Amino acid sequence: MVLAEFVTSGAAAADLPRDGAPEIALVGRSNVGKSSLINALAGRVVARTSATPGKTRLINIYRVALREPQGDPERRRRVAGALERTFYFVDLPGYGYARGGRSAESFQALAQVYVNARWHPDAAGGPATGALLLVDARHPGLDNDLAAYDWLATLAQPAAVVATKMDKLTRTERQRVGRTLETAFNGPVLPVSAASGEGLKELWRLIDRLLSKHPPKLNPRQASSTCPR
Ligand code: GDP
User: Which atom from ligand 1 is nearest to the alpha carbon of 38?
Assistant: First the structure.
């Protein structure tokens, strides 16, 4: 069972969780479907979705608690009510939406706040973190998604790439897009759809690996890079 709730929105390191639970940062273009995916994983609406790109300019934080319903009866009794795993989704603002807005500055500035707080070598030892890079399956290999990939790879944190909105592709497109994505991102890309539920089970498994001792890492494509705009 998944219990998920919105915790807070913020723009400063002080707004980040302080209970030491692990975090998964969600990175992607504005409108890529991050909120929809959070809601699909939660099984209910916890994140506000929007048809208007570039609206979220804060870091949104969601607490997720997983209870394990399986296991032998004795174990189930012992863990009854206890949370098997708690972590946070840290939803960074979407990048790549410039029109009339300041989302470019927001993403860069807030991503930097997060990196300094959690991933910087001099960070004060934040909780274990990982990242999911979400890319729209209909637009494989966009420059700013590749820049985001390179940026995450440079940070050398546990991270994986997820292709959203797979339900919008035809069967023939799926094969072509799958190959294009894996070539562009130099490794596996998990196809999902918040609308149809495709890939959600696999996404939970991926999240589990990101939070585990043996998390996936991105294969670097190039040596240095900066945060996308
Ligand atoms: P965010 O800006 O990344 O949080 O994106 P949202 O979750 O708000 O989604 C942006 C738009 O894409 C909304 O109109 C959603 O309904 C739509 N959308 C998101 N995920 C999917 C999906 O899996 N399939 C389809 N068909 N539409 C989606």
Answer: 7
Spatial strand order of the sheet with 189-191 comes to 2-10, 59-66, 85-91, 23-28, 129-136, 159-164, 189-191
pLDDT tens for residues 88-131? 999 999 898 665 555 556 888 899 899 888 887 666 656 778 99
Residue 39 Cβ contacting ligand 1 at under 6 Å? no
Beta-carbon contacts of 216 under 8 Å, excluding residues fewer than 6 positions away, are: 158, 159, 160, 206, 209, 210
Euclidean distance between CA atoms 57 and 111, whole angstroms: 11
* Dihedral angle over CA of 133, 191, 127, 225, nearest 10: -20
Residues facing 189 on adjacent strands: 161
